[in-house]
Amino acid sequence: MKRAVLYLRVSTVDQHPETQGIELRQFARQRGYEIVQEYVDHGVSGTKVRRPALDQLLKDANRHKFDAVLVWSSDRLARSTKHFLQVLDELNELGIQFLSQREAIDTEGPLGRAIIVIISAIAELERSLIVERVRAGMRRAKLEGRRIGRAPLEVDRAALVRDRLSGMSLTHTSRKYGVSRASVVRLVREAQTDGEIVTTS
After folding, report:
1. How far, in Å, are 46, 70, 90, 179 from residue 51 at the CA level?
2. What is the average per-residue pLDDT within 170-187?
3. Which helix H or strand E contains 115, and what residues bound it?
4. Whether residue 11 lies in the annotated active site
5. Which of 47, 114, 187, 197 to pair with 40, CA 20 to 30 A apart?
């Protein structure tokens, strides 16, 4: 028997999630699922990505505490198409079945597998678009003469390295040249790697 959980959500405090719960419990019995947990977000909008019960559901999904997630309607899970696809993609990666009673969505059947393929394709497209937007932004910044990456430290590197190698403490060197301790370590390492000749007189 598959272990199933219910996700119930109502957006206003005067609504009651039990309306969804009654139908979903009957739906689970018809499918032969054992309900091991119910997650309820009461008075929470579906436009919010972070929700206490949904967050806990996803944490438990990563711990493989159940095999299927049942919802009354897909808009109970998310109003945003992007968020809905993200959650479905995460459940699919974990091998967890998703069922929506109203839309008759079942990610285990042939149509469900097609939905997963579409979701994966959309997710891959989104990742590609993000990468391309980043690259376009870098190209634009370069054309405009703006620096990309870490700005160079305005410090007498040779003097800093000499002081550090002559025995000045890391903290003292950092304070003297107005840079972080990590920057001091990095500059000394770079000087040694580049084979710079440092006099300690």
Report:
1. 9, 17, 16, 42
2. 89
3. helix 110-143
4. yes
5. 114
Q: CA distances (Å), 56 to each of 7, 61, 85, 106, in order?
A: 11, 8, 18, 22
Return the SS3 of 19. Answer: helix
Task: Report yes or no: 7 and 57 within 8 Å, Cβ to Cβ.
Answer: yes
Q: Do the beta carbons of residue 54 and residue 41 sit within 8 Å?
A: yes
Q: Residue 200 has what pLDDT? A: 44
Q: Is residue 186 within 8 Å of 150, Cβ to Cβ? A: no
**pTM for the whole thing?**
0.56
The residue whose two tokens read 């929470």 is 44
Q: Are strands 34-42 and 68-71 parallel, antiparallel or unpaired?
A: unpaired
Q: Compute the distance between CA of residue 65 and CA of residue 143 in angstroms, rounded to an integer.
A: 52
pLDDT of residue 198: 47
List 11, 73, 120, 183, catalytic entry: 11
